[in-house]
Amino acid sequence: MITSHLRCFNPACGSEQPRSTTSYACPDCQGLLELTYDFPSLQAPDWPRLWQQRLGPGPGREGSGVWRFREMLPLFDDGAGMVSLGEGNTPLIAAPRAAQWAGVRALSIKHQGANPTGSFKDLGMTVCITEALRLGVGVVACASTGNTSSSMAAYAARAGIKSLVFVPQGAVSGAKLAQAIDFGAQVVETGANFDQAFRLLRQMSDQLGLYLVNSINPFRLEGQKAVVLQILEQRGWQPPDYIVLPGGNLGNVSAVGKALAELAALNLISRMPRLVVVQAQGASPFHQMWRSQSARISPVSEPATRATAIRIGNPANWPKAARALAQTEGITEAVTDQEIRAAKAELAQGGIGCEPASAATLAGVRKLREAGEIEPGADVVAILTGHQLKDPDYITEQLGRGGMLQVEPTPAAILGALRDWN
Ligand code: F0G
To answer: Which of 113, 121, 257, 275 is deepest in the core (most CB within 10 A)?
Structure first.
C-alpha cells in the first residue's frame, strides 16, 4: 500500500494538510496544494506489466485508463464508490501528413477527444468526483471555458451529486454548454472571461458550501497524469523527444510534468521528454513569463482568442507549470488564431478532427521547428485535448458550409449539380 500526503506546493511553506480539507488553498500561505507519495525506493517496480495485464474492456476499475494505474493515485478503498465512465485508454494515432507539414520526422496524436465527454478533463474528473463522494460533499462546482463543466456535470450526475457551473458570458461553445445542461448542471453565465468567473466562484465557494473541481483541486491533476502512462505504454515505454500540449489554466501541463517526474524517480523511464506548452497569442501570459525568464506571471487582463477553451489570462497553476518545464527542459510557444486555423485544417485533411485549442499543438510544433528550436529528426507526441464536435460553430464560421449543395430531389438534378465536382 502506498501512502499519499496532501501538501502545500510552495517550497517556502510545504505544510501538510488533512485529507478532509476541501478548500484546496493552503491555510497557512494560500499556496496550491498537491499530493505526494511514499513510493518504494531503489528498484523500479514491476508496475508496467501489472498495468498492461489489467487492460480490458471493463466494467469497473480495469476498464478505466485511469484506475488501472492506481499505484500512482491516491488510494480509495478497493474501488468501492469509484465514479468512472470508462475514461482513458484513448488512441495514439500516427499522423504522417501533419508530421511532414510541421517538418518533423515523427508525430503522433494522443486523442483525448475519445473520452466519455469528449475531452481530457474526464481523466481528472473520475478521481476528484470519487474524492467528492468519499468526502460526502453536497455540491460540486467549477468555473469553466466549457470542457471542465461538461465533464464535471457528467461525473456528478453519475455520482448523484448536484453540480454548479460558472461560465463567462457568451464566450463558451454552445455544444459544451448543451452537455452541461443535458447532464443536469445548474449553469450560471457570469463575467467577461474565465478569470472573472473563477474569481467570483472562489470568493463564494465557502458561502455556498461548494467543493471546487477546477484544476486547483489536486485530485484532478492526479487523474490527468494517466495520459502520460497511457502514451508510454502505447510506445513500449520508449519516451518521445517532445510531448506537446495547449496551455490555458495550466493544470494539464502540471499533471503531465508531475507524472514524468514521478516515473523518473521510480526508474520507469530513463530519459525525460521535453514538454512544450503552446498558448494562443492573445492569451499567452505563461509563454511571456517563460520566454522573459520572469519569476512571476503577469496576467493578461483581456485575453483574446477564438480558441475559447484556452482564453485565460491569469492561469492558477503557473507555479506548478513552471516546475514541470524546469524539470523537463521545457519550451513554450504562442500561436495566432490564423496559425491555429491552418493547423486544424491540416489535421482534418489527414482525417483527424479536434477543437481549435487542441490544434494549437500542431501550430506550435511547426513554429518551433521553423525557429530551429525543435530539430527535424524529432519524435513528437501531441496531445489533442478535445473532440471536433466540441465547437462546430467554429468550423462553419471558418469554412462556411464547405460548398454544400442544396439540390432538388431527383437524380438528374443531383447529377447536374455534381457536374463540376472533382
Ligand atoms: N484544451 C482544451 C480543449 C481545454 O478545454 C483546456 C482547458 C485546455 C486545452 C487547457 O488546459 O487549463 O489544463 O492548461 N479548459 C478548461 C475548461 C479551462 O474550463 O474546460 P489547462
So the answer is: 121
